[in-house]
Amino acid sequence: MDPDGDHLSAREVEAYSKRTMPEAARRRADGHLAVCDICMDLILDAGGAGLAVTRLSEAFLASDESPFHMSPEDMAGYANGSLDETDRVVFESHLEICPKCNLDIEPLMDRSRTGERKPHGIVSKHRVRRSGAVAWARFRSVRNVVGIAALLAIVLLVWATWRSGIESRRAKQASAGEQISPAPAQQNAGGGAGDNGSPGNPQNEGGATGLSLAVSLSDDDHTVGMDEQGNLVGLGSLAKSEEDSIKAALESGQVPKPSVLRELTGPPIRLMDRSTDGWPFKLIGPVQTAVVEDQPEFQWERLAGAASYAVSVFDGNFDIVASSGPQTSTRWRAPIRLKRGQVYSWEVTAVKDGKGITAPTAPAPRSQFKVLRSVELAEVRDARERQPRSHLALGVLYARIGLVKEAETEFNTLAGENPDSAIARKLLAEAKSWMTH
């Protein structure tokens, strides 16, 4: 569990999905997953088949309910190929041990063979999750222990095949990264790392001679960069999409503007009276950014002469979901957990001389933010735990998922470690340009 004991850590999610978690820890995780939607989403993102294995294993606990058979809707969905991958594996396994369902589905399969059959496939993670929940409820009705064992063995085989493909790709990426060793940063007159790699032959950890780097940066006490063949060095094993984003940043000194900002940056409201900008006092944050925490802290500037402040948080339907009540402090933390993946807006009303003064008001747009999705939260946790730590990799990740302030902080640190690097300066300037408020 994480330090607060609220959720599974990224390593626990990985161990649970790989089935390497000790039995006692796994039982605790099973109990937590039964009541925690956030961690259930993380497990689903790591692999829906792994979740099916857990639910099948727990099905041994049920022994007092009626036998399980496929419903007519399930049979029709299987026959026409509309079931998702998790249910398809489950039901094909069930057909091997259930004569009744075999007899019932055969006429449907015959009719399906005469027409065009849709291919089976995996649908969105939300549908998989709902289907998994339905399958779990049905499996709790299974009484035949021998049948459950057969089902478990088949799903374990599917899961092992899926994991094998993932590990094989990761091994190839790691192997490619280990063949090239990071070169020492080229020293310039100011003593910092430059954008061009040293023409010498740097040594790797094992003492072997490596290749020179085309681009290099000092990054938290080590060197990262790209060799002359376009391979990243000094960052370890990364996902292909993450590698591509970092390579593009090193080549151009730019990262794309976070797509989430398009959701959060509304146009100003036009008023005939232009004597005000809609900001009697400033809201510090979160404004036009994504946030990691689902109970974010809100901060604003003090209004001279104000006796108290009250915060209101609204959902996408403009309904109030949380409010602070009058307080004298200029910061406040939401008392409830906001929904991940959702956009919220907020405002502060200051009371001065008995009158309420709200920020923002027209013509200023609403102050909006978005809570990170569970899959993005897992990415952040993994990146922060990864060794060696990299301000470059963190900055690129934060930029992609919309953590605007955090991305600027990482690029600012990177620029400080590379004062003569045009690439580091451009990355920092790019991040600063996103701060529209």
Quantity of strands, as a count: 12
The low-confidence parts are: 47-66, 116-146, 176-193, 198-209
Q: Main β-sheet, in a few words?
A: 6 strands, mixed
Mean of residue pLDDT? 74
Radius of gyration: 27 Å
Please bin the fraction of helical residues: 40-55%
Instruction: Quickly give the CATH architecture of the domain at 269-371.
Output: Sandwich
Reading the helices and strands in chain order gives HHHHHHHHHEEEHHEEEEEEEEEHHHH
CA distance, first residue to last residue: 36 Å
| CATH hierarchy, class of the domain at 269-371 | Mainly Beta
Oligomer status: single chain
CATH names the topology of the domain at 269-371 as: Immunoglobulin-like
- Kindly estimate the percentage of residues that lie in beta strands according to DSSP: 5-15%
Number of helices: 15
Class derived from helix and strand content = alpha+beta
Gross morphology is globular
Provide an overview of this structure.
The chain is an alpha+beta fold and 437 residues long. Among the domains are: 72-169, no CATH class; 182-242, no CATH class; 269-371, Immunoglobulin-like, CATH 2.60.40. It contains 15 helices and twelve strands. Strands 5, 7, 8, 10, 11 and 12 form a six-stranded mixed sheet that branches. Strand 10 (343-352) and strand 11 form a beta hairpin. Helix 5 packs across helix 7 (99-114) and helix 14 (404-417) packs antiparallel against helix 15.
